[in-house]
Amino acid sequence: MVSPHVHSDILITGGCGFLGRKLILSLLARTQLPGRIVVLDAFPPSPPSTAISHDTVPIVYRTGSILDTKVLNEVITSSTTCIYHLAAVVSAQAEQDWNLGMQVNFDGTRAIAERCLELGIKPVVVFTSSLAVYGGEVVKNCSEDSHIMPQSSYGAEKAMCELLLSDLSRRGLLDARILRLPTIAIRPGKPNAAASVFISGIVREPLQHKQKTVLPVDEKTLIWIASPRSAIKALVHASVVPRETLVDAQGSRRSVITLPGLSTTPRDLIDAMVRVGGGDASLVEKKPDPKIEAIVGTWPGDIDTPWAKSLGFEVDKNVDDIVKIFVEDDMH
């Protein structure tokens, strides 16, 4: 009998977050299983009961920093063939603390790359970038080929990582697949320090927790979003897209993929929350926040992504589906 396992290790940084957990479950549902999944996060699974186990695939949790050489030496070995690099300091936090953002977002990514170079391995590296790499006039008429012009520290750090990993891929030293993610909505759990946190909050809080929440931007602001289901499908798909298809029209390596998303507004999300889930729109308080508006205003609200779609990356159908997915998957 042929073993269902692929004899390799998969590393997931930031793997104890909600996307990391969903990614683990998705990888374990595949026909071909990894030999081992290593989960690195700055924090342990909380509560401990949320740690995932499997009958035949060892899942190793390691609490530590991607900046710790000893930790990276443990989690990246000669058996590592795929790295999902999700760990990051999020947008508003990176804007508030420049050093922390640079250390985790850029220095941490470089440390991962250097560990791979030290071992002489060339794993597939699926890196989560962001639409925050765009900015300026580009946001009004944006495509996957638009020039990057980040207007935040977070966007600049993600752009720097894109260039680093793209260059290593061009040189044949890694096999990077860089995904510019839309804003992921609807996120369960407690709010984080991301500037986009309100996008999930205006649905989650009235619908799940029956409590008030704040909308810090104009309700007609265009936002580019994707459901967690779409994001996980994209992460897994990115790791198996044939390398030879990741080229531009001139045949040069093209490692950056701007994922398809859904262009909508906070108003549309609130209406869908009421329509699909029966939530109370009066619990959403309009309270403009100039700092959040300044960051979100630099992000494109609509992006043309024909190349990504040609590679097989999919998009959510409509805003009602975004809310339905939250109700079905994450509303407990």
Q: Can you give a write-up of this model?
A:
The protein is an alpha/beta fold. The protein has a domain at 5-182 and 227-258: Rossmann fold, CATH 3.40.50. It is 38% helix and 20% strand. It contains eleven helices and 14 strands. The strands form four sheets. The protein has a seven-stranded parallel beta sheet, with helices on both faces. It has a three-stranded mixed beta sheet with strand order 8-10-12. Strand 1, helix 1 and strand 2 form a beta-alpha-beta unit. The chain is globular and about 55 Å long. The termini are far apart. Residues 1-7 have low confidence and may be disordered.
| Poorly predicted ranges | 1-7
Rg, Å, rounded: 19 Å
Distance between the termini: 40 Å
Rounded mean pLDDT is: 93
Beta-strand level of the residues, as a percent range?
15-25%
SSE succession:
EHEEHEHHEEHEEHEEHEEHEHEHH
User: What is the overall shape?
Assistant: globular
CATH superfamily of the domain at 5-182 and 227-258: NAD(P)-binding Rossmann-like Domain
Q: Helical amount among residues, as a percent range?
A: 25-40%
| Sheet with the most strands, sense and barrel status | 7 strands, parallel
Decide which structural class fits the backbone. Answer: alpha/beta
CATH classification class of the domain at 5-182 and 227-258 = Alpha Beta
Tell me the number of helical segments per DSSP (H or I, 4 or more residues long).
11
How do the strands line up in the largest sheet?
3-2-1-4-5-7-11
InterPro entries: 3Beta_OHSteriod_DH/Estase, DenD, NAD(P)-bd_dom_sf
Protein name: NAD-dependent epimerase/dehydratase
GO molecular function: oxidoreductase activity, acting on the CH-OH group of donors, NAD or NADP as acceptor
Organism: Gonapodya prolifera (strain JEL478)
